[in-house]
Amino acid sequence: MKKHTKIVAAGRKAEYTKGVVNPVVQRASTVVFESVAEMQEAIKGRGHRTLFYGRRGTNTHFALQDAITELENGAGCALYPSGAAAIAQSLLSFLKAGDHLLMVDTAYEPTRDLCDKLLKGYGIETTYYDPMVGAGIDALIQDNTKVLFLESPGSITMEVQDVPAMVEVAKRRGVITMLDNTWGNGWQFRPLDHGVDISIQAATKYIVGHSDVMMGVAVANERYWPELREHSYLLGQCTSADDAYLALRGLRTMPARLKQHELSAMTVAKWLETHPLVDHVRHPAFETCPGHEFFKRDFDGSNGLFSIVMKEGSQKAINRFLDALSHFKMGFSWGGYESLVTANKTMEHLRSTTGWALGPVIRLHIGLEDVEDLIEDLEHALKVYEKNLGKS
Predict the structure, then answer these.
(1) What is the pLDDT of residue 54?
(2) 108 is catalytic
């Protein structure tokens, strides 16, 4: 099947849909059995999409797991109550005291906090590395390095990593690779096709697509799926059937939504590129974005999330800019139908290896509003920004 057909058909077995279009919402804690033989059969199949106990999932969960597994070309998919939980559980499934973790310096802030505030206390050492290191990652691998964690593009500053080159080194050195693929969403980038062992997403973002569900997913290859599945179960990770249903519904329209996000974001980014206050655009499809060549080689497209780096700015200018916006709302997520904005005067507090010598960074998520309205909104806010430059 072609991609568009697959995403419509995936996870829609007759046992899940029961004669209707969408999989039925099956809520359950206890699964009951009519005989000892039936219960023993369920026990044997409990790790393989068999009704056993609510925490193992129902047919609604199995439908979503099947669909995302097909989307990312993996062996299995685990569901979590948030993207942060998916990252934490994936790491905790394979790391133990005495292990060493290589973490990209541009990681999502909660991922960095997990390493510094929790894993450190568990006796797990973390080394942050430059996202553009490529095959040079070989020099950072220690005898006790267990996991290499990537996020491509990087959080906020959008660096695209040379995933195949890094994976080749990791495999040669016996290191497990994980990648936060929330931006690539499984439709525009499929990490497992490039040799990554575990692909992680905040399904909260583009899979759900409507800013009304918290969910994380992790898709593993055949080698690591059994361990990820069982360790996730042991630590009690699960989601509600209603949330799984909403994620399935969002998945069906994700390609159409992403196309519009991409078109609108490119229009806004090209307009911002010429603005006199903007130093450069951090959008993977732009040559000004580090790793643009890897984006062109590995990705099937882009979406609505990108950043701009300002030539200069003060905290007051940033605050006035944010307050002046109307269609762009301030919020700590993205991937929904609405436009969002966040801003950082400096990135130093979020970088420990690469540093940050450039100007303020404004991250934009371009939603599904009319693009002319969004540009008009930004134009007004940037005038306010300019008036407040130099003011503390």
Answers:
(1) 76
(2) yes
Per-residue pLDDT tens over the stretch 142-168: 999 999 999 999 999 999 999 999 999
Per-residue burial over 306-339, b if 16 or more Cβ lie within 10 Å, else e, is bbbbbeebbeebbebbbebbebbeeeeebbbebb
* Residue 340, beta-bridge partner list: 329, 365
Q: In this structure, are strands 125-129 and 100-104 parallel, antiparallel, or unpaired?
A: parallel
Please identify which of the residues 162, 180, 243, 377 carries the catalytic annotation: 180
How far is the first Cα of the chain from the last one, in angstroms, to the nearest whole number?
Answer: 57
- Tell me whether residue 233 is one of the annotated catalytic residues: no
**Amino acid of residue 149:** F
- Vertex 12: Cα angle to 7 and 17 (nearest 5): 145
**229 flagged as catalytic:** no
Active site residue 205: yes
Mean pLDDT of 369-385: 98
Q: Determine the angle formed by the axes of helices 225-234 and 83-92, rounding to 10 degrees.
A: 110
- Residue of 16, 108, 245, 385 marked active site: 108
- Does residue 392 register a pLDDT over 70? no
Find residue 78's DSSP bridge partners: 218
